[in-house]
Amino acid sequence: MAHRRRLRSSWNRVDSGELHQAPRKWQSWLSDTGSLTQKIESVIGQKLEVVVLRDCRQNLNSDESRYFHLKIQRCRVREVLLCANNIPLVMARSIIPSSSSSGSNHQVLRLGCKPLGAVLFAKSRTHSKAKPMREIARLDQRSALWKTCLQRYESLPSVAWGRRTLYHLKGKPLLVSEIFFSSLLSC
């Protein structure tokens, strides 16, 4: 039971064996290494709607800032809902350090209502051989990310499963957290 309690309040690496603690219905979503947008669109048979909740510079919490080995205090934060037929399926929060959006990575600043995956998984992008670091968590009222998301999306369930992945776009880090809503399972 203590092991399960630890999973509720912290992020755990997918490759550490913690994935089996997640409900079976969420395991394939939490562990998938491809584009989440493409996976959802293949399941629902239509393009997703991207609703931008926030796209601005802000301070990071300490949990997020540990991914960036620099003393980054402010980053661009982009929060979106991925919806089908106006029903939210996923909420995504992307942390984009200034250094990660400069030079040839400038396209991450001009996403508008396009999903970030359109840039991260573009066919022309050179994919790193290294597998991106992925963590999963059971999120609830005690989670900083859950509290942040609740401020932007009031219909957040009391408990949700999420994953976060540290991607690299041309060698520059981007942290993407995705919270899965139960409506995704009924697609």
Automatic annotation (TrEMBL):
InterPro entries referenced in this protein's UniProt entry, alphabetically: Chorismate--pyruvate_lyase, Chorismate_lyase_/UTRA_dom_sf
Subcellular location: Cytoplasm
Transmembrane segments: none
Top-rank taxon, per record: Bacteria
Main location: cytoplasm
Listed pathway(s): Cofactor biosynthesis; ubiquinone biosynthesis
Entry GO MF terms: chorismate lyase activity
Residue sites binding substrate per the record: 78, 116, 178
Lipid metabolism listed as a keyword: no
Family membership noted in the UniProt record: Belongs to the UbiC family.
Protein name: Probable chorismate pyruvate-lyase
Organism: Polynucleobacter brandtiae
Taxon lineage: Bacteria, Pseudomonadati, Pseudomonadota, Betaproteobacteria, Burkholderiales
This protein's encoding gene: ubiC
